[in-house]
Amino acid sequence: MRNILIGFFVLFITGYDTQAQTTRSVYSLNQLMDSAINHFPVSSQRLVYDRNTQLNQENIEQTFYPTMQLNGQVSYQSEVTQLKIPIQGFTAPEMAKDWYKLNLDISQMIYDGGSRKSQREIETFNFKGQVNNVLQQEFHFKEMISKIYFRILLFDKSIGVLKSSAKSLQGTLDEMQAALKGGTILQADVNAIKAEYLGLYQKIQEAESNKMAAIDLLSVYTAVPVKANDSLLIPPVSDDFIYVNLRPELTQLKLQQEKLGKMKSLLGAKQRPIVQAYGQLGYGRPGLNMLEDDFKGYYIAGLRLNYKFWDWNTTNREKQLLGLQQQVLESEKENFDLNLRANFASQLQEIEKLKNLIETDKEIIALQETVVEASKKRLKSGTITTAAYIQEFEKYTRSQLNYQMNTIKLVNANIDYMFLTGNFNTHE
Fold it and tell me: Which residues are within 8 A (CB) of 352 and not within 5 positions of it... i.e. 6 or more apart?
């Protein structure tokens, strides 16, 4: 049974490699992130916010459009004005107690103190804040896609090392079986190599399963049918690490501050006088001449001035409140930047650590390779036990895994630096 499993394992490795060479697709991190954003439901909110802002701006513009209102009134009065001055040859007309009026009132804003301009600017900052909120969610969504991407790369490198080790161990196993036939070693020695070989098979199966789970997750988020044998490109990185703060969270705080400034301007505009032209077209009884008891048409035109010159300092207090909110936002900006600088320094240390580990890994691999070769020869000659050889072989495999893992982690750390500063550009 064990020999059947080993044979299946060999076919599994060689068959997988053949299939990978014939049907492999290649994807980059930028390509998959772009596809993910194109299918990200939150991204569609931009169109909603754009239309919402357009409608609000149109409503604001209409404050300078003429307003027209039709008013009607029918009334009955218990008493009306009477002229009781006796004048010879003159009889004062008697006014009717039932009155009828139908008016068209027209008003046109001439000067609003700058309120319209301030309202438009506030609405613009509302829109910028809404769009930037979408950008924040897209930013974190991209970051999640990146984590999944590098998780797949780690599993892929792990699988590659394990399969390479399995092929190497297969060669040793073949030599051990030949030695068994020659009577120079025991069956137990061969079985120990077989057990180690099957252990590698288990690890490959586990890594393949974990990789496929990550691929399925990536495919759902990106709407790209990534397959197990597809190739994910390792993003190019740069060693030019300069601190910048281009995070959308900082942009959001700045937009909120600027919006509060525009709200101050609106309060100032409301303190200024308002000038309107107005007119009234009417028909009724009586008209403007109260002494005529007939239905008449009439009109009135003029200018209207409204000026609230004293509000018991309410507006100034409201401005102070807005100023205090701006101070709070400024402290939040400083705190965010402080934490980002600390994370930046920590990230640089992580990158430097991984660089050093990779250099050490290379030395360990070179040394461990010679140890394994020597152990293999000693195993054939019977001067060491199979367990001792397997121990050295596992060390060699582990050193290769460490090197491949640290290499991917270094690239991942570079990408994390880009996300950390908001300056994401892989130059793919």
Answer: none
